[in-house]
Amino acid sequence: MIYLDYQATTPLAPEAREAMMRWLGGPDSDCFGNPHSSHRMGRMAAAAIEVAREEVAALFPPGGKVIFTGSATEAINLAIRGSGVGPVAVSPIEHAAVLDTASATGPVHMLDVSPDGVCDPAQVLPADTRLIAVMQVNNEIGMIEPFIEWMGRARQAGALYLCDAVQAYGKIAVAQADMIAVSAHKFHGPKGVGALWLRDGVRLNEVQTGGGQERGLRSGTLSPALIAGFGAAAKLAKERMEEDAAHVEALWVRAREAFAGWTLNGSEDARWHGNLNIRRDGLDVNRLMSDCRNVMFSAGSACASGSGRPSHVLKAIGLSDRQAKSSIRLGFGRYTTLDEIERAAQAINAAAKEQAL
Ligand code: PLP
């Protein structure tokens, strides 16, 4: 099978897997202690978590702290619900974790986005905006949003800035923001662990009550194994960032050539090149996916695909329902080979051509 769905999830790095194994802790091991216990085994587990916290923090700007959560979705919920500030201004191309949480908590101002997928920080904001959420890299079309300008805009408006950096963290230098949400499984860490980075001085209310872990903001016993894997993946990503980016660039060039007959959704510029979202008029994407069963790609975001609804991101950048439904997303990265791109393109192009007959 050829895996080209890196925005949905990524393969676990062997280094992350190795770091996790010890902390899975069987009865013959000393590594199953509760990291919140004060005895020696507890302190050992807590120390492993603090090592990982440093590794995860090293990819964030200085001047903040890392709060571990069970996913980026949970980190986003903590940021939006915990700041309790509303009204919230959001870009229409945010992940459902942001859109649905913002609308569940109060009035939402939907920002404008250009046909290129860029959310312009110069646009008018309602005077009472207290929280702005604009992501760093879009998960469907890969656009890199002007997050530095959004940070400045938030300051000017007296609002907090939340940046969903799930698709950026571990790949490019991460956003400047007040709160940043990330997820381990999007950059070769394990599933089931994420983090919210909080700028020093930003105060949140707890959302999940209980034992008061994570500075009282996220109660619940932490998983040393998942967090050790997260830390190891972050350390590796930091070491390999340039090498990985160069590899992604080579894959992008090959993929653009191989899919030359397709139309690119979103702009070629200001884009993470590990995401190729393309369309072909009249394409039946469901049929294409069933004809190319051995190639893992997506008809939109992993959450939206299967719903039958056209992607809200493609609609927001001006595509018609028909165009959105004839689009596919290919995602690739560190462990993808040029040969896999080649073979996937042959299969997809042949199946698409068959449809045109
Ligand atoms: N934000 C973006 C941009 C994503 O791509 C995803 C995952 O699809 C999420 C948030 C949610 O991440 P998690 O799976 O950790 O809840």
Keywords:
357 residues, alpha/beta, binds pyridoxal-5'-phosphate, 2 domains, seven-stranded mixed beta sheet, Aspartate Aminotransferase, domain 2, three-stranded antiparallel beta sheet, Aspartate Aminotransferase, domain 1, 10 helices
Number of domains: 2
Strands side by side in the biggest sheet: 2-8-7-6-5-3-4
Q: How far apart are the termini?
A: 27 Å
| Overall 3D shape | globular
Helix content: 25-40%
Proper CATH architecture of the largest domain: 3-Layer(aba) Sandwich
Briefly, what CATH class of the largest domain? Answer: Alpha Beta
- What share of residues are in beta strands? 5-15%
Low-confidence stretches: none
CATH topology name of the largest domain: Aspartate Aminotransferase, domain 2
The CATH superfamily of the largest domain is identified as Type I PLP-dependent aspartate aminotransferase-like (Major domain)
Q: Which value, in Å, is the CA radius of gyration? A: 21 Å
